[in-house]
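ok so i was messing around last nite and threw this chain in just to see what happens. nothing serious, just curious
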Amino acid sequence: MIKIKNINTFIKLLFIFLIGVLAVECKSDTKNSQEVTEHNEQAQVLDTFAFSSNPVKVPEQEVHTLEIGNKAPDFNLPGTDGKYHSLSDYDSAKVLAVIFTCNHCPTAQAYEERIKSITSDYKDKSVQVIAISPNSPLGLLPEELGYSDLGDTYEDMVIRDKDMDFNFPYLYDGDNQKVSLAYGPAATPHTFVFDEERTLQYVGRIDDTEKPGTTNGEDLRNALDKVLADEEIEEPVTKTFGCSTKWGWKTKNREKIDAEWAEREVTLKESSTDEIKELIANDSEKLRLINVWATWCAPCRIEYPEFVTIQRMFGARDFEFVSISADKLSKKESALDFLESTNSAVENHIAVNDDKYALIEAIDSEWNGALPYTMLIEPGGSVVWRYQGEVDFLELKKTIVEHPMMGRVY
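result:
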């Protein structure tokens, strides 16, 4: 212990100590205050972006694609970055490339990396690339999603942007499609290149080969180079191959297909333990998704309709969904009633043996018996994905579409 003989010295030392403590606290408070301020500013940005998607039916009309020499129509659209974007926001760019694209289309997905590459290569050349999704979610059928894990909603666009780390603005026009109707994209992707006066100089394809890795966006790059050099583009208009734009008046087709699916016969096959084992062995040539469920299992009933949607999405490809009811055979009628209510027009099974532990071992020795239980099985019986409990369907769809037997592009 330090002995202080002089009281005045003690007071001085105490004063210096208190000043030091206050200085440290002040510095800490300043840092905390800065962190709170930054947090509040971020919260204010999110609060000011009060956008909630609300796609509506659009009256059927003739769509005209912009012609060379036309001016760029104005827009004010929500982006996946949580901000609104207008044409005037990019006044400083000498060249503006507006590319109409989307999440679900295999052709559009095939060009995503090329669009990123072009954006990166021209970012220091006064070129601004903007992507707009023109599709109405109302006009999109589950059967059109066979090459994607996502639809074309704004919320799905945010996910795709994050998954792909887009380096360009990705804007949503699916609510009323006013901007898309003004530009007139025939398909996704469809590119429009404007000069400094925002006069259209090129409209058409990105390049002439869809398969990734074979081309590098030569048509678009040539157009950008020519406009930057104030030179004439030899072929300013090209055809564009891709998925047709999903206009908001195509809802009648969706209603028709939904009605046709609802009219399909739903059956429930009584299957022995050995037959269940054969399902798991998967001697087919398809990727097989199996869901084990029961009528008394509330989570099973809640999530089950999404499995039917997955069948509609991927059923035209090398994929099939099979359901296995864990209900007692005496409850077959109740199980069938539920399947009919969900339009489960797939291969449905119910075990004839009420021995649930025999059923568990027949399905998967790694399964402890809790419902629901889901497995994704390759031809030959190799389980590539299994999950006990309520499924994360985004994860499941991504697992399916990215399997080597499937894929996102043709």
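not much to say yet. Residues 264-401 form a domain with the Glutaredoxin fold (CATH 3.40.30.10).
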